[in-house]
Specification:
globular, 9-stranded mixed sheet, 5-stranded parallel sheet, alpha/beta, about 375 residues, about 20% strand, 7 helices
Length: about 375
């Protein structure tokens, strides 16, 4: 094992840096420990968030644990006995806190990873708000929450009402008596719309493409097909697709009721924004007090720009969890691993490949 060392210039040597302590980052840290790596000696976990919980800690209060679909347990520790009526931010935040303590992962936070570049001797230089690390490998688990996507439309800056992104969605009561345009055909957009409708004066649902509702269970076969589609894109160096664009919207009892009541009657994307609402080229217009952009997120990987990993298609070409252009860099929670179960598997796969890269003998599981 390589004892951690601090150079005169304030650069700390370590074998592996894990950037991000959400589901994928914690899974990776767990598998590093199982393989014999010691925290603060062989690897360090850096997290941008102020407390444990990954992106879940920022979710809106009305997203209770019972509404969360497909939250998969972290490796080695189940989440049991959670009250489905409690906010998911609280339940999962407490679970991640307990997990970090049980496995002694020693996450450093809040730490902003600002830049990753080529260092000396084939190592990577990770510059952060808390100092600089020189590392032999990087597991990037920075997710998407810090990069909400805001589309641009003509007249957007003239709107006199309120515009907000789902990243800061405050819950349905904040829209009481207001006229609300919800933009986006994903799970967040439909959930927000169904919550807001009973409080709002009027709601409209606007999406770029007609939504696809997926009846029936999301079984293993459908899951494999969805992952294969996303994997194909990232192998080509294209930006990952959103989950819903691959799987479709799950049809729950609440969705059936909202469709029957007209809440989920979809309009095509408007052509412009006016000071008082939105307009279409065919002459239709809607007056609104609020535009809620439920338009998703993009991968938070700007700090990797000095490594020139992006392909002409706009994404990072991947070989499993490994960046095809640099075997020292693994992206977990990116592309096909951007799900809770996928993040767990990606953490294990990344550590296995890093063992080979560092030429360590594997430790029996």
């Amino acid at each position: 094992m390589n004892d951690i060392g601090v150079r005169d210039a304030g650069v700390t040597d370590v074998d592996v840096v894990v950037a991000g302590a959400g589901q994928a980052g914690l899974s990776s840290a767990h598998h590093l420990r199982r393989r014999g790596f010691e925290p603060e000696r062989d690897f360090v976990v850096l997290d941008h968030a102020p407390r444990p919980g990954g992106a879940w800690q920022f979710r809106w209060p009305s997203l209770t644990y019972g509404k969360v679909h497909g939250m998969h347990a972290l490796p080695g520790m189940e989440l049991t006995g959670a009250d489905p009526a409690r906010p998911s931010s609280e339940v999962i935040g407490e679970y991640f806190t307990a997990y970090e303590r049980r496995f002694d992962l020693r996450v450093r936070r809040p730490v902003d990873v600002r830049r990753v570049s080529e260092g000396d001797g084939g190592r990577l230089l990770v510059e952060t708000s808390a100092g600089t690390w020189s590392t032999r490998a990087l597991i990037n688990a920075t997710g998407t929450w810090d990069k909400p996507f805001w589309p641009r439309y003509p007249g957007q800056e003239t709107f006199l009402g309120r515009q907000l992104h789902t990243a800061v969605y405050p819950g349905p009561e904040a829209f009481r008596g207001q006229r609300v345009v919800v933009v986006g055909g994903g799970a967040s957009g439909t959930q927000h719309l169904m919550e807001i409708a009973p409080y709002a004066a009027e709601t409209w649902w606007v999406t770029r493409r007609p939504p696809v509702f997926a009846d029936g269970p999301f079984d293993e076969g459908r899951g494999r097909a969805a992952v294969a589609m996303v994997e194909d894109r990232v192998r080509q160096g294209l930006p990952p697709l959103s989950v819903v664009s691959v799987t479709g919207l799950a049809v729950t009892d609440a969705v059936r009721e909202a469709r029957a009541n007209g809440v989920l009657d979809r309009l095509p994307m408007f052509d412009r924004i006016t000071p008082t609402g939105v307009e279409w080229d065919d002459g239709r217009a809607v007056e609104a007090d609020v535009i809620l952009w439920a338009t998703g997120f993009r991968a938070a990987v700007d700090h990797l720009a000095p490594l020139r990993l992006r392909e002409p298609g706009g994404g990072i070409r991947m070989d499993g969890t490994q960046a095809a252009a640099d075997p020292r860099v693994h992206l977990v929670g990116y592309g096909p691993s951007a799900s809770t179960i996928g993040a767990n598997r990606a953490g294990r796969a990344a550590v296995r490949d890093i063992m080979r890269l560092l030429r360590r003998e594997p430790v029996p599981a």
